[in-house]
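note to self — DONT lose this again. spent like an hour looking for the file last time. sequence + predicted structure for the chain T wanted, 347 res
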Amino acid sequence: MLYNDPNNPLQPPPDPHAQPGYPSQQADPNAQSGYSYAPQNGQPGYPYGTQNAQPGYQPPTTNLPPMPVWQPGSLHPGLPPTSSPQKPARSRTRSVAIFALTCLLAVVFGVGLFSGWTYATSSANLHSSVVGSTSPSTTVSTALDSQSAREAAIAKVMPAVVEVIGQVSQGTALGSGVIVDKNGNIVTNNHVVNGASSLQVVLSNGHNVAAQLVGTDPANDLAVLRIQPYAGMAVATLGDSSKLTIGQEVLAIGNPLGYSGTATSGVVSALNRNAQESRSVNLNGLIQISTPINPGNSGGALINLQGEVVGVPTLSAVDSETNTPANGIGFAIPSSQVKAALTQILK
């Protein structure tokens, strides 16, 4: 049965508020109070839903809000997405402060490690320097001390060294000698005075004085001359050649090539050497030295740094290929032999 049917005498009067296409809003006498209107008790032919909607029918509208649509990021379906909460400014400031403090602590820790390493290294180097005694100041001090010792030794012996001049048939023989006692006795080489018709000595002060031959020891190439003692005459001290060691520094003082008052430096290269001086003389127990010596050094003084005469320079080795004196290979008669010759000659 349709509403608004003019042929139905039982039809209630039309609802003045009804709209076309919508069912009447009058109350259903069969409806139960508290229940929503439903088509359960509808008359046959009552249209339910939109399937049999009459022309012009429109779905009923309601005042309910539209169903929320769930979107990704929402906490719950149907709720609008939530945005990430903004961090408060104070939290960022605190993070920056913590980072800065961390960096500061790292720098302080690094500086501390570096300072400790530097201190340890410096202490180790200082300890090594002290233990090894190889500091620059120590080296300089040692060099100055050595130089001072050389100067003092030369100054002590130089006034006692003289130049010996002998007149021989072939001309003039030049050599050196050393005043060894207050009587004016002078030690020199035998080959310097051998065959001389007259002898004279040039003192360290430049004065020429006559000299007499006292005696000789040809086997050891030694001779003793004597001059008249004079005021202020310097006398050299004979040392102990048996205490010499290889590598020990020694000095030679004499008149090489006529250059009076010349000092040269070297070391003891070897001990107890033998050398053939001539066809008839073979010298034994010689001191081999690196100290430069030349013709004119013969008979002079070989001294240690204490200013003691430890030998008498006599000859240089000869290079057999060039027949010239070898470089840095010389020989001296040890002071032990000099003392023995003096005793034998002066007895």
